[in-house]
# Entry
Amino acid sequence: VQLVEPGGDLVQPGGSLRLSCAASGFTFSKYPMRWYRQAPGKERELVATIDSLGDTTNYADSVKGRFTISRDNAKNTMYLQMNTLKLEDTAVYFCYTRMNFEYWGQGTQVTVSS
# Structure
């Protein structure tokens, strides 16, 4: 199982960024997926979840209305569209799934700064 997240960047406040998570080594379309993030000096927090078909999504209150989680099962890829970025969105973002074990991506740095 491999989860790879390219796409981190430096963005100005109010800007947008799309993260992706490329999955391999398992039947992607069968499993729910999640995005987490960890800011410096803080615990890792759940950002958004999506079910296996992409029909049901959930968001942390801190990102609701600004972030959108989605997936393309034909491409084995999950996305996180982040709009109206704030300074407090600065963090390392991780994709995650769980089967018999938990699997994490390596993380990608998102920095929101002027």
Notes: The chain has a mean pLDDT of 96. The chain is about 0% helix and 50% strand. The CA atoms of residues 49 and 90 lie 19 Å apart. The first strand starts at residue 2 and ends at 4.
